[in-house]
Amino acid sequence: MLIFVMRRIGAMVLTMVVVSILLFLLLEYSPGNVATKVLGPYSSEEQRQIWLEEKGYNDPLPLRYLRWLGKAVQGDFGDSIKYKVPVSEVLWPRLGNTAILGAATMAVVIPLALVLGVLAGMREGSGTDRSISVLSIITTSVPEFASAPMLQAFFVFYLALLPGTSSMIGGFNPVELILPVMVLVLYDFGYVTRMTRASMAEVMTTHYIRTAVLKGLPYKMVIMKHALRNALIAPFTVVMLQINWLLSGVIVVEFFFAYKGFGFLILDASLNKDIFLIEACAMVAVFVAVATQALADIGYTYLNPRIRFS
Amino acid sequence: MADQTIDALRGEPILLRILKGIALLRESGVGMIGAALVLFWVVVALFAPLLAPFDPLATLQLLAFPGDPYVLDPGKTFDGQAVEEVCALIETGEKQGKYDCGTFWLGTDRVGRDVLSRLIYGTQRVLLYAPLATFCAYAVGIPMGLAAGYLRGWADEVLSFVSNVILSFPVLVLYVIIIATIGASGTNIVIAVTFASAPGIMRIVRGLVLDLRNREYVFAAQTRGESAWRIMFVEILPNARGPLIVDSCLRLGYVIITIGVLGFLGLGLPPPDPDWGGMINENRLMALVAPHMTVFPCIAISSLVLGFNLLADGLREISLRD
């Protein structure tokens, strides 16, 4: 088990390193470009040369990369070009806001998807199963950028029930979270539901469930005590991997509702070509994605005794 | 049974085989609904010039909101006098006989262009770029997957690692960075989609090939001394087509979403040509006073994606049933 965990973490670090090299090459390969972005298009050639010399950009590329990497692992990504402050000062509060949004979404998605998935998978091919399947196909077909305006039109324009933006200008306001969370939940729960259903349906065909039913156990007991334990292993992985998708959805939702989070920040940075901010955001995003993948693998192995003891 | 059906169809003209394959869809109600939705939009795209009542780029100044809503506070645009101003403008227009109320079925957007016409012409763009991008992704992903799965060894190691690295990005982060770096244009969207989707396709193909490479007909081909490339493309690939067809429907839906998202984020096909995601983005700030500008493109894109997803589901159902 320990060796497996170490190997998984090793793979994770290797991926991060390769991603960082790619990002560095993409954004900082030409020093002249960096200087123009940082000092602005109207800076003189001399100014740029002085800045490049000062920041050590005239050194060879591998040396520059290693220096950048050394600082990056300590959390120093340089200064944001747009905000004129160290990247970390902008990044961490935004990431916190997104964590709130993500946690609220997950808090709805997980119970909802598991219950629907188990209900659908319990009796494969039943009316409940088919309606839940079709429902999940429909909701996953409506992308976030389409459901957001539609829900906004309904709840804000016609019903005037909810605030239309989530900029949190007057301090943190949970009511402003409702619409963004609703949009994310609608798009994300379908996939988890379908995976839970598939896992549940598979377990229901196994011999030990048939035995449990035949020896006269109450159906409720068979589901709760016997089936669920095994059926919920696969959804755990799916939920962890879903965090990767959530990071994509968050960009759309935060942009639409003007929520000051990580997704909005990375979009803003990319549009403004805020090099150091893009690098920091991308590294954080990839870290979250890779770490959840590793956790999903490790957790799956831990939860599944058939793998753990083999 | 699926294999038998397909075997029975072999030897007939290709067009007939395709038609009979489509006819299999009849067995799945969900698949039929999906096919109908997709077909509807394909017809709309093909006959756009006949169906669209107006030029999608023509603006009716009278209907454009006074001032730029990006500058004005949208909440105030419709307060008291502003509402009257808008009404007065519309009335003047009516008196001049420029249009009547029934002219714009879905209303006009914030610069006074007909939403319906833009929607109809927007179909052409979505249905041009999405299949093109998906096709390019498969053209890159399939050879990668075949090589990784059939040749194994270092080719597999390298290709798998590269795809793992690309797939470790949250997908939209990857798109945003690529498009922001290389610029927004139709070609660049195709490039970005190919880059981001090919690794996923490679994984699927690799998985299929790992299963198929141990079949007798592959051994037979190897004994005949056929080249590796011929075995991969002529012996293995045609037998992997079932899951790939289902996957391509799902992926097409996802690529449509991607193109829409990019348009929505202002990174898509350049304006002023109509583009569904772009339409939502352009009128997003008016949504609180005039939701019709954004809701109809939303419905359009959702129904098209739903069509492909239901189609994929129907196809999978049929392939599993037999």
Word description of this protein:
The complex is a heterodimer of chains A (310) and B (322). Chain A is mainly α and 310 residues long. Chain A contains 14 helices and no strands. Chain A is flat. Chain A starts with a helix and ends with a helix. In chain A, 37% of the residues are buried. In chain B, 71% of the residues lie in helices and 0% in strands. In chain B, helix 7 packs across helix 13 and helix 9 crosses helix 10. Chain B contains 15 helices and no strands. The interface between A and B is large, with 48 and 42 residues.
Which percent range describes the beta-strand content of chain B?
A: under 5%
User: Would you tell me the overall average pLDDT of chain B?
Assistant: 79
Coarse shape of chain B? globular
How many β-strand runs of chain A?
A: 0
Q: What is the radius of gyration of chain B computed over CA atoms, rounded to a whole number of angstroms?
A: 24 Å
Class from helix and strand fractions of chain A: mainly alpha
Count the DSSP helices of chain B.
15
End-to-end CA span of chain B: 5 Å
Major pleated sheet of chain A:
none
* Average predicted confidence as pLDDT of chain A: 86
User: Could you name the ranges of chain B where pLDDT drops below 50 across 5 or more consecutive residues?
Assistant: 66-81
The unreliable regions of chain A are: none
Number of strands of chain B: 0
**Rg of chain A, nearest Å:** 24 Å
**Given the C-alpha coordinates, what overall shape of chain A results?**
flat
Order of helical and strand elements of chain A: HHHHHHHHHHHHHH
Assembly type: heterodimer
How many helices of chain A? The count is 14
Fraction in helix of chain B: over 70%
Structure classification of chain B: mainly alpha
Q: Describe the main β-sheet of chain B briefly.
A: none
